[in-house]
């Protein structure tokens, strides 16, 4: 299996940092933000559980645009082959 070398952009990194610092952010948003920040540099990739969570967020109408942006970033860094 090939390795996904994508990293979190600086814009998404800022969004993730703001999300983690906000008391009004949901636990889902904070977990996606933490995942995105952990992939800011280095060779970390999205795990299967986080990939599933991100996919559920993207297909749901109940999450904010910013949460969906974090989910999209996290999902783009997954290494799942279809």
Automatic annotation (TrEMBL):
Disordered: region residues: 1-54
Polar residues bias (residue ranges): 1-11
Biased composition (Low complexity): 15-40
Protein name per the record: Uncharacterized protein
Organism this protein belongs to: Acidithiobacillus ferrivorans
Lineage: Bacteria, Pseudomonadati, Pseudomonadota, Acidithiobacillia, Acidithiobacillales
């Amino acid at each position: 299996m090939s390795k996904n070398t994508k990293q979190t952009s600086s814009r998404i990194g800022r969004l993730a940092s703001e999300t983690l610092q906000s008391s009004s952010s949901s636990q889902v948003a904070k977990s996606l933000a933490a995942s995105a920040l952990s992939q800011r540099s280095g060779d970390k990739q999205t795990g299967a559980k986080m990939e599933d969570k991100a996919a559920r967020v993207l297909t749901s109408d109940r999450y904010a645009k910013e949460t969906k942006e974090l989910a999209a970033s996290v999902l783009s860094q997954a290494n799942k082959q279809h």
